[in-house]
Amino acid sequence: MLSSKTDAAKKSLLRRVRRQRLKYIAILPSLVTILNGVFGFTAIIFAGKGSGTIPVDSKIPFFTFGSTTYFAMSGYMILVAMVADMLDGRLARRVKSTSSFGGQLDSLCDIISFGVAPAYLMLNVLENELASIGLSDETFLQRFVWLSAAAYISCAAIRLARFNVENEEDESAHMSFMGLPTPAAAGVIVSLVIFHQETISTLAIICALPFFALGISILMVSRIRYPHILNQYLRGKKPFSYLIRVLLLLAFVWWNIQVAMVVIFCGFAANSFMKWLYFRVPISRSIAKLRHKASHNNDNLIPAAQHSASMAIDQAKIDEQHDIAGGSVHK
Question: Mean of the pLDDT values across residues 12-28?
Answer without folding.
Answer: 60
